[in-house]
Structure formats: structure tokens, C-alpha cells
Amino acid sequence: MADDYTDLGFETRAIHAGQQPDPRTGAVIVPIYQTSTYAQDGVGGTREGDYEYSRTANPTRTALEEALASLEGARHGLTFASGMAASDAVLRTVLRPGDHLVLGNDAYGGTFRLIDKVLSLWGVEHTVADLGRIDDVRAAMRPETKLIWCESPTNPLLGIADLAALAGVAHEAGARLVVDNTFATPYLQTPLALGADIVVHSTTKYLGGHSDVVGGAVLTDEDELREQLFYLRNAAGAVPGPFDAWLTLRGLKTLALRMDRHSDNADLVARALARHPKVTQVYYPGLPEHPGHEIAAKQMRRFGGMVSFRVAGGEAAALAVASRTKLFILAESLGGIESLIEHPGRMTHASTAGSTLQVPADLIRLSVGIEDGRDLLADLTQALG
User: Which residues form the catalytic set?
Assistant: First the structure.
């Protein structure tokens, strides 16, 4: 990293880490290096050691990786073409045929599909466990276990895991703890500081923050693991383009401001839903009655912008509510400035149907945006009827 911003605040690092003014022109925003290749200083004489071909390295991507590493408190950051590409790279780097991993019983449907349908063909086995129950996690570990794959908060039931305790279980068994930090973001939670070995993100979500880019990231302190991930990414080619990296960098600059507003609005929405007669259950770690509230309060700065809830009347009622909102847009994904609503069982988590990760049919998931909170409450109230 060109400058050390370690001792500076999060908001300062989000704007400056890896993003020094361009030395040639003085441009204060990192340029989009829209190039596929680089002039070499003689045969094999690559610029700054990496810049020979943009699948291998690109200066805009490098700036993003340095910024993300600074925000997560990591030595190394690598970005990928999508969150799933980042997850795939971690799994294929760390695991080999015959290995085993422990997966949480509430996880993103795409992660479950990758592990259950793709890695299983490669001879990798997995056990599903409630990561909020440490004894259950210990019971799921095997001699061949190499990873515990954790989300906290989880998608879509907003479960909370004690990351320090999970790291202890993993390390006792000679395994690594991977934390998908997409919902929390490094502004709200830094898993490496709690003992995790690897952090993954879908940068498509809160880090980009504007629903206009797809990407992923992996953060780690391990030098050798970084080299292995770098090699696989270059060999397999799942890299983000420079404009994707630039858009994500732009999003990082306002991450702290947005996450505070997301958290404000989500708290408002969750408390209102908890009082609504047609809502049977609300999942939000900011609510005192949430079973993971105390742990979340210890390891998170705030509780984030995601809220899930169940409605009286079953799946038909849930689908009706999702179809009646005006401001909450019916769409997959999350973490943008606009509010989204979805039915996980039919949309993002359809791949979990029939498995132990199947989600309730009457469940609705909200990505609460940064609009006026009063308008969001009015929209949900009319949709619930």
C-alpha cells in the first residue's frame, strides 16, 4: 500500500486508502484503466511487478483491493467478477476431494447450491449445523473438516453467530473459519479481528451500494493463501473489469453514511412490523427479543439494513404483500440505496427447497433502503392491508 492509513478512522480510510491522487495528472479520483495489456520494459519487464495483462492485474482493481483490505483490517484483498466467484475461489483453493466443511443451517441459496450441487461432484462433503449453537458445530466437525462457512447475520433469517467462539472451534480442529460479511459490511463488523481466517463479500450489495455493479471480494491475513487465490483467479479468469472496480470504489466512499441510514430505517421498520397484527414473526438482530441480540451488540457496530418477517395467511398472503408495495421494489439482490422486497422461497432461496435449509413459505425479506423512513412504513402498512 502506498500510504499507511491504519490509525485513521473508517470514513477516512474509505475515501483515501489505495486512492492517492494520480501521480501523472493529479486526478483525485482513481482513473478507470480501461486497458487489456501493458507495455513491458523489455521482455518480461512488467510494470510494478504485476501489470502485464488485465486478467492478472489492473491498477483500478488494485486500488479497490487496497481500500477493501484497509476497511476489513486485512493484509490482503482480492476482488472477483461476482460474490459467487469469490466464494468458489475460496472453496476450490482450500478444499480438495475428500475434504469436509460445516455450513450454517441458514445460508444464501447460491452458496448452498455451489456447495451441495457443484462441490459435491468434486468429492467435497458438507454437514449443516446451527452455527448459533457451538455444541452443534463441534458435533459436526470431522477429522477431514477444513472449513466452517458462516454468515452473520444470515440470509434470510438474520441469525447471529458468535464469531470468536466459532473461530475457536475451527482452530481447535485445524480448520479455517470463513465469514460471509456481505450483510454486515466492514463498517458494522470486522470478522478477522474476531478470529476469522477469511472474509468474503458480494460487493454487488452494500459495498457497491447503488445496484449498478456485480462483484465479489476475499480478504485474508495469510500470505500463502493470498498467493494461492491470486494464482487461481488468474488461471480461471473470474476478474472484475476496471469500470466495475471503479464503481465499487465510488460506493465505498459513502458506505459509512449509507449503513447508518440503512440501520436507522431498518430499526424503524422492524419495530413497526413487530407491532402489526398480520405479522407473526420479525427477524432483526436489533430487536431485544432476537435470540442473537446480545452477541450482535458485542460484535457489530449497528444491526444493518436487512429485515425479514412472516405473515399470517401462509405463502399466498406473503406473495400478496410482496406484490402490493409501491416503494419497495419486487426484486432479488439487496444493499442498494433503494428498498427491495422479495419472497425468498420463490426467489433467492429456491435452490434450498426440500433441504434442511428450506425457508418458510410465509417469509418475506426486505432490503431497507435510505428513503424517508416514514414513507417506507406507510408503504408496508398499505401492502399488509
Answer: 55, 108, 180, 205
